[in-house]
Amino acid sequence: MKRILAAAMLAATCSAPALADDALKAAIGGSQRSPENVKRDVYRHPYETLTFFGIRPDMTVVELSPGAGWYTEILAPYLRERGQLIAAGATPESKAANVARAGERFKQKLDGNPAAFGKVRLGAFEPANGVFNYAPKNSADMVLTFRNVHNWTEEGDGRLKAVLKSVYDALKPGGVFGVVDHRLPAAKTQDATTSSGYVHEAYVIRMAEAAGFKLAAKSEVNANPRDTADHKGGVWALPPTYANKEVDRERYAAIGESDRMTLKFVKP
């Protein structure tokens, strides 16, 4: 009888669908998000992407190079009560004047909505200046970066290696490193500075594994088979940038945003 009950419980566990993360859905649907950012959900798939990485609201999560805060608008309220978001990027205290200005703009965004963003912690992350002061060693449950790897290869592999080392050091054993970036087809040549903005998926995996990470899973949630990755002006020809202005704008709009790899790595 005990064996039958155990087997039934195991079958129920294996067949049960993953529980929906209502808190994450609420953060994605929240009023703290700008309307322009919400419009891009169709291309960036925040719920599916973050669920794939295995995020939970009680985690300490680092967002590397948050930019203008597209994902910060989701992560901050989601982690506010039980977890911690560290926005690792430009800070007002930077010794580089241009970085300090960018950090001040980002801080103003956070200060403008303390109910949603008031508990975000800023961390200094300036790969170009060798600054990686964003989290103590073995302290983070998850480190995420969205469309940034290509920026860290502008001068070859050295800068990316330094970034990956900092991520490895910051994560707890078993911690997750989630990467989304523009994907260059394997048949196309990746130049040394990734000037098109596209990166080979195999290259990212190789570099991460060389830093000590294990590839846990891949997802095609951010794939776009319409993207040929051979545009004049590189990935920035596509929306939302439209680097070529009105030239072929309708064609680029029909393609949509870039084809992207979505990779989940784990620190052993």
How do the strands and helices of this protein lay out in sequence?
Blueprint: H1 2-15, H2 22-28, H3 35-38, H4 41-44, H5 46-53, E1 60-64, H6 72-79, E2 84-89, H7 97-111, H8 114-117, E3 121-126, E4 131-133, E5 140-146, H9 157-170, E6 171-184, E7 199-200, H10 201-210, E8 214-219, H11 249-255, E9 260-266
Parallel strand pairs: 1-2, 1-5, 2-3, 5-6, 6-7
Antiparallel strand pairs: 3-4, 6-9, 8-9
Helix pairs in contact: 2-6
Task: Note down, in words, how this protein is organized.
By secondary structure, this protein is of the alpha/beta class. 35% of the residues lie in helices and 21% in strands. The chain is built from 11 helices and 9 strands. Strands 1, 2, 3, 4, 5, 6, 7, 8 and 9 form a 9-stranded mixed beta sheet that branches.
Specify Rg, calculated over alpha carbons.
Answer: 19 Å
Number of DSSP helices? 11
What is the mean predicted local confidence, pLDDT? 93
- Strand count: 9
Describe the largest sheet. Answer: 9 strands, mixed
What is the ordering of alpha helices and beta strands?
HHHHHEHEHHEEEHEEHEHE
Uncertain stretches of 5 or more adjacent residues = 1-17
**How far is it from the N-terminal to the C-terminal residue, by CA?**
39 Å
Helical percentage:
25-40%
Helix/strand/pairing category: alpha/beta
Tell me, briefly, the overall form.
globular
Strand percentage: 15-25%
